[in-house]
């Protein structure tokens, strides 16, 4: 229910790196993962590189929908400008 900003960098080998942050806090959260068959699978890690959560997102045009899976599972819906 909070607004976020997410920046993702795709690579030719299908890997993805990126960062997101909550607009309210502006603290960067590191992401890494892959894109295959329209599905983004990202790992959120802490400053030590330990897994905090997984994001599983389906792509549809400029929309990403799916879930953040950590201590709980939360729905995600993002739109690219």
Question: Top keywords for this entry?
Answer:
single chain, globular, 7 strands, 81 residues
List the helices and strands and how they pair.
Layout: E1 4-10, E2 15-22, E3 29-36, E4 39-45, E5 51-60, E6 63-69, E7 73-79
Antiparallel strand pairs: 1-2, 2-3, 3-4, 4-5, 5-6, 6-7
Unreliable stretches covering 5 or more consecutive residues: none
Q: What is the approximate shape?
A: globular
Percent of residues in helices: under 10%
Strand-residue fraction? over 45%
Helix and strand content put the structural class at mainly beta
Number of helices: 0
Radius of gyration: 12 Å
Mean pLDDT: 93
Strands of the largest sheet, in order across it?
1-2-3-4-5-6-7
Overall number of strands: 7
Q: Characterize the biggest β-sheet.
A: 7 strands, antiparallel
Cα-to-Cα separation, first versus last residue: 19 Å
SSE run = EEEEEEE
Task: Summarize the structure in words.
A seven-stranded antiparallel sheet has the order 1-2-3-4-5-6-7, with no helix packed on it. Strand 5 (51-60) and strand 6 form a beta hairpin. By secondary structure, the protein is mostly beta strands. The chain has strands at 4-10, 15-22, 29-36, 39-45, 51-60, 63-69, 73-79.
